[in-house]
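Technical annex B. To support the medicinal chemistry partners, we prepared a structural model of the target in complex with S-adenosylmethionine, based solely on the information shown next.
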Amino acid sequence: MRSYWHARVTQHVQDSYLDVPLLKFPEDLRVYEHLLWESAANVVVELGTKHGGSALWFHDRLDAFARHGRIRDPIVISVDRRQKAARAALARVGASASSVKLIEGDVRDPQLPAVVADYIPDGATCFIVEDTAHEFDTTLAALRGFSRFVEPGGYFVVEDGCVDVEEMRADPTWPRGVLPAIDEFLASPEGEPFAVRRDLERYGMSCHVGGFLQRRPPSRGRRLFKGSSNVA
Ligand SMILES: C[S@@+](CC[C@H](N)C(=O)[O-])C[C@H]1O[C@@H](n2cnc3c(N)ncnc32)[C@H](O)[C@@H]1O
């Protein structure tokens, strides 16, 4: 199992979407498709753009869901400290700057959430993905800064908790601190409304161990997301 995991880790850093590197397991992308559809999120806020492959993938999934009438006005907002490579990649595949907003910033900057908020339309339903440095301070800053954008029933995914699972660590240079940051966040008042959904690691392998967080829906038995303003 361990050698299979290592092979998959190696494979995923060589993967691509539309010829742009995309660093995610297919299993995790499949879970994202389910959660985006179920929550009818029309805005994805991605922290950690790198090459832009994942921003493009999110854009194309939201675009498809809009065409199927599930959502309206899709937008992807992606943040990184540098956006030169992603800008070039998005331009190369013809993605419009109005549907994928690339923002340069540091996730630890307390002003960043307000900058991002300016790009989120009123009534939007947000899906947040934290994929920056996978260290304690960046993870906690992302959770503290961006969990406010998640509506009841919505999702905040903290990627790559695998860095803190000894058996899953593929390289001694991997960072640490994702799972302790999630624990600290959940123990705080702002984290209290969130629950860890381990059941969403549903395809046998996930990098995002303990990282699928859902803001609890307002009341039991109520149909989630019904009447959300972004639902077409
Ligand atoms: C794992 S890569 C993102 C991969 C991309 N989301 C994908 O799936 O293809 C992590 C990115 O986070 C960025 N990053 C690291 N620390 C950051 C910070 N403090 N603030 C913003 N971005 C950061 C890095 O520059 C890098 O491009």
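Notes passed to the chemistry partners:
The first helix runs from residue 2 to 12.
The chain has a mean pLDDT of 93.
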